[in-house]
C-alpha cells in the first residue's frame, strides 16, 4: 500500500513538472500513458538543452549563461572560494571581416574562438556567447592575473591561426558584487584595455600585464589554475563547458 502511494505521488509530481513546462494544468495529463509521459519528459529536456546552447559556437546562450554565472557566484559565496574571475571578450573587427570577406568568414572566426576557449580553459569554466561578437568566460578559483594570462594565450593562438584577435577585460569577484556588477566591471576593463590599445600602446600593456603576473608568481599554466580543484559535476550536454573527459 505504501509503495503504491509512493508511486502515485511520484507520477503526480512528474505530471506537475511536465505540465509547468507545457503551460497546462496537471489534470490534463491524468490518465496519460506512462511511456508517453516518459517520452514527453525526454523531449522537453532535449529542447531545454538546445535552447540553452548557441547553435553557431556551442557556447551557452546569454540567458542560460547568466543563470549558470549566478550559480557560480552563489557557490563561491557558499564555499568561501577566495577567487572567481570573469573575462569579457570582444572580437576585434568582426563587422569589417563580415563586410569584406562575408559572414561565412565571420562565423568561422567565432566558431574557432569558441573552440579554443573550450579546449584551453578548464572543464568547469563557463563559456557564454553574450552578443554577436562578445563572449563571457567565468573561471572559478582563478584570480584576475591568472585569468588574464590564460586569455592572452588564447588570443595569441587565435591570431596565429586566423590572423584575427580579440580584446579582453577581466574582473575578479568582490565581496559585495552581484552578477550585474561583476559583468559591468569586466566590461569596463575591456573598454579601458581597448582605449589604451587605440592610443598605440597595446603591446606595452601586454608586457606590463605579463611582468605584473610574473612578479606575483602566477601563471595561466600553473597548477593552481590548470588542475581541477573539484570533482566533475553534471552539466547540460553540449553546452559552453567542456566535457569532464577533456578533448
Polypeptide structure, described:
The protein has 247 residues and is of the alpha+beta class. It has two domains: 2-52, no CATH class; 62-226, Alpha-Beta Plaits. It has eight helices and four strands; from the N terminus they run αααβααββαβαα. Strand 2 (126-129) and strand 3 (134-140) form a beta hairpin. The chain is elongated, with a radius of gyration of 22 Å. The termini are far apart.
Descriptive labels:
247 residues, alpha+beta, Alpha-Beta Plaits, disordered C terminus
Instruction: Tell me, briefly, the overall form.
Output: elongated
Number of domains: 2
β-strand amount: 5-15%
- Give the neighbour order of strands across the main sheet: 2-3-1-4
Largest sheet: 4 strands, antiparallel
The mean pLDDT is 81
Structural Rg: 22 Å
Query: Ends: how far apart?
Result: 50 Å
CATH superfamily of the largest domain: Reverse transcriptase/Diguanylate cyclase domain
In a few lines, what is going on in this structure?
This protein has 247 residues and is of the alpha+beta class.
